[in-house]
């Protein structure tokens, strides 16, 4: 496994990959866990070469968010990458990726507006900008994204479609702990007492999904589940059905930690289709 730091170094390496070999790409901010590993394994199974990027992207963090304290366990990440069959890791510095003169941004203007977009101004602009830059450096045939960040997945798919990028975007189902908590690099911020309460997000989402699928009014169901979360000390930002992604999605603070999660909510036929092939949901 090779580790490349500057975009130029990576581009030199990229030119050594033979033309016929397919390149799978998993962009991350590091602090890898079993969710990231699932994306990497999927890429390694479907491509001859798998590239991992590790870059904590300052442009997707708000001024009061956790950019500085975001975990950066680089050596442990390399061990996981190696075990998952990664061929090369691209890990640029902020200065190399965004020199002071940097002045070009890319923005999706529809799917990025509700949900997280409403509470994190500029977040998706930072995501699409960094992902497009990474795509240009890595030039993958396929790129893998977690459906845990469902809105991000759909925004990136839309950017790829709108800008005619020649690659496939693959969605990978959310990897969870046994108690339902979606794996996230930010779970390590939770105190042990908060961690015990964390499964409530997935529980309320699945309860709401089941009620909606049995015919209950989505707005009423969501209100009830927001109340349940708030009674248990969560500060809910949103808990709503997002028709564009056909997901029921939630974001809530537990202490200082912001957690997001979602569940697919579709008719029986659609659920079967998207569970078999989540990348075909748009
Ligand atoms: P991050 O490092 O948090 O930016 O995540 C990098 C990629 O891993 C994104 O495509 C995420 O959606 C995906 N990811 C994060 N957590 C999970 C999870 N629990 N299950 C599946 N994919 C995940």
Description:
- The protein is an alpha/beta fold.
- The chain folds into 2 domains: 2-172, HUPs (Rossmann fold); 185-281, Pantoate--beta-alanine Ligase, Chain: A,domain 2, CATH 3.30.1300.10.
- It has helices at residues 7-14, 34-46, 74-83, 94-97, 116-119, 123-138, 150-162, 192-197, 200-213, 218-231, 268-276, and strands at residues 2-4, 23-28, 49-54, 88-90, 142-146, 168-172, 235-242, 247-254, 257-264.
- The strands form 2 sheets. It has a 6-stranded parallel β-sheet, sandwiched between helices.
- α6 crosses α7 (150-162) and α9 (200-213) runs antiparallel to α10.
- The longest helix has 16 residues, at 123-138.
- The protein binds adenosine monophosphate (AMP).
Topology readout:
Layout: E1 2-4, H1 7-14, E2 23-28, H2 34-46, E3 49-54, H3 74-83, E4 88-90, H4 94-97, H5 116-119, H6 123-138, E5 142-146, H7 150-162, E6 168-172, H8 192-197, H9 200-213, H10 218-231, E7 235-242, E8 247-254, E9 257-264, H11 268-276
Parallel strand pairs: 1-4, 2-3, 2-5, 3-4, 5-6
Antiparallel strand pairs: 7-8, 8-9
Bound molecules: adenosine monophosphate (AMP).
Q: How would you spell out the order of helices and strands? A: EHEHEHEHHHEHEHHHEEEH
What radius of gyration results from the CA coordinates?
19 Å
Supply the CATH superfamily name of the largest domain. Answer: HUPs
Please indicate the percent range of residues in DSSP E strands (runs of 2 or more): 15-25%
The number of helical elements comes to 11
**Based on CA inertia axes, which overall geometry fits?**
globular
The third-level CATH topology of the largest domain is Rossmann fold
Number of domains: 2
Nearest-integer average pLDDT: 94
By helix and strand content, what is the structural category?
A: alpha/beta
Distance between the terminal alpha carbons, to the nearest Å?
A: 34 Å
Give the names of the bound compounds: adenosine monophosphate
């Amino acid at each position: 496994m090779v580790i490349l730091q500057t975009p130029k170094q990576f581009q030199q390496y990229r030119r050594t990959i033979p033309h016929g070999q397919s390149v799978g790409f998993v962009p991350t901010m590091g602090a890898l866990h079993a969710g990231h590993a699932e994306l990497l394994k999927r890429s390694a199974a479907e491509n001859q070469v798998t590239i991992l990027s590790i870059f904590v992207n300052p442009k997707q963090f708000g001024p009061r968010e956790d950019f500085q304290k975001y975990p950066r366990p680089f050596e442990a990440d390399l061990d996981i990458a190696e075990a998952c069959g990664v061929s090369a890791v691209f890990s640029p510095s902020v200065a190399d990726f965004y020199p002071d003169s940097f002045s070009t941004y890319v923005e999706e203007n529809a799917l990025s507006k509700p949900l997280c977009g409403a509470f994190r101004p500029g977040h998706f602009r930072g995501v699409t900008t960094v992902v497009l830059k990474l795509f240009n450096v890595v030039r993958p045939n396929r790129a893998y994204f977690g459906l845990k960040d469902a809105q991000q997945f759909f925004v990136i798919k839309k950017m790829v479609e709108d800008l005619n990028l020649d690659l496939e975007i693959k969605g990978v189902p959310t990897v969870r702990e046994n108690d339902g908590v979606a794996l996230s690099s930010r779970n390590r911020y939770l105190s042990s007492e908060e961690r015990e309460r964390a499964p409530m997000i997935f529980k309320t989402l699945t309860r709401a999904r089941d009620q909606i699928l049995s015919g209950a009014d989505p707005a009423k169901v969501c209100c009830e589940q927001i109340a349940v979360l708030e009674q248990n000390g969560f500060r809910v930002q949103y808990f709503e059905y997002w028709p564009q992604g056909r997901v029921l999605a939630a974001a809530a603070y537990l202490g200082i930690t912001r957690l997001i999660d979602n569940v697919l909510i579709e008719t029986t036929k659609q659920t079967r289709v998207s569970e078999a092939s989540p990348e075909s949901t748009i």
